[in-house]
Design brief:
Order of helices and strands: EHEHEHEHEHHHH
Strand content: 5-15%
Number of helices: 8
Radius of gyration: 34 Å
Structural class: alpha/beta
Largest sheet: 5 strands, parallel
Distance between the termini: 81 Å
Oligomer: single chain
Shape: elongated
Number of domains: 2
CATH superfamily of the largest domain: Response regulator
Strand order of the largest sheet: 2-1-3-4-5
Helix content: 40-55%
Mean pLDDT: 76
CATH class of the largest domain: Alpha Beta
CATH architecture of the largest domain: 3-Layer(aba) Sandwich
Length: about 200
């Protein structure tokens, strides 16, 4: 599944360039032209990555980033800031709003993709349908063998399974032996006699 990126920039040229670079690299791109629209789309779509122009109408990229990091739902979405070469900007500002990085415009496609590749490691994986783990499969196998009798270890089982035992139902022979042991125990309690008339008196 393609990574979903929100690109926020008030420059149509920057939007078109960014959209083409990202789409060609296999990303799904959502583009907006101001900070307010960025906040709305991020809350609605939960993108994997966010690219914010620092200077936009409405909320600036710095303000949008700060709001994202202050919200528990969006705090872990990586943010890349973009800023024009001639625009006043200090790296400390990116650190203050907890942005993961920034890049200076104009930039080459390779520069943008390189910056995003570093942010990829910070992307929180999307939830996927869970698959049963090895332990769950072992439990299921034990339940199946319980229905058919004693559990027989498979020659293909790995070492970790050999350290786990599962309770199983007693077979007919085991039940008979258990009943015989219980009968003998009752006889011993009655003085060791099998004749009910000669039971030990107290």
């Amino acid at each position: 599944m393609a990574r979903k990126i929100l690109l926020a920039d008030d420059s149509v040229t920057a939007q078109n360039m960014g959209r083409k670079i990202l789409a060609d690299a296999g990303y799904e791109v959502i583009a907006v032209n101001n900070g307010s629209a960025a906040l709305k789309k991020i809350a609605e779509l939960k993108p994997d990555l966010v690219i914010l122009d620092v200077y936009m109408p409405g909320y600036s990229g710095l303000e949008v980033c700060q709001r994202l990091k202050e919200s528990q739902e969006t705090a872990r979405i990586p943010v890349l800031l973009t800023v024009g070469k001639l625009e006043p900007f200090k790296p400390e500002e990116a650190q203050r709003v907890r942005a993961e990085g920034y890049i200076v415009k104009p930039f080459e496609a390779s520069e943008l993709l390189s910056a995003l590749s570093k942010l990829e490691d910070k992307v929180v994986p999307r939830a996927e349908p869970s698959k049963p783990g090895r332990f769950a499969r072992a439990m299921a196998a034990a339940d199946d063998t319980d229905r058919g009798g004693r559990t027989q270890p498979s020659s293909t089982e790995t070492g970790w399974k050999n350290r786990i035992s599962f309770p199983h139902k007693k077979g007919d022979g085991e039940e008979a032996a258990a009943e015989e042991a219980q009968r003998r125990s009752r006889e011993n309690a009655n003085g060791g006699s099998r004749h009910p008339g000669r039971a030990k008196r107290f």
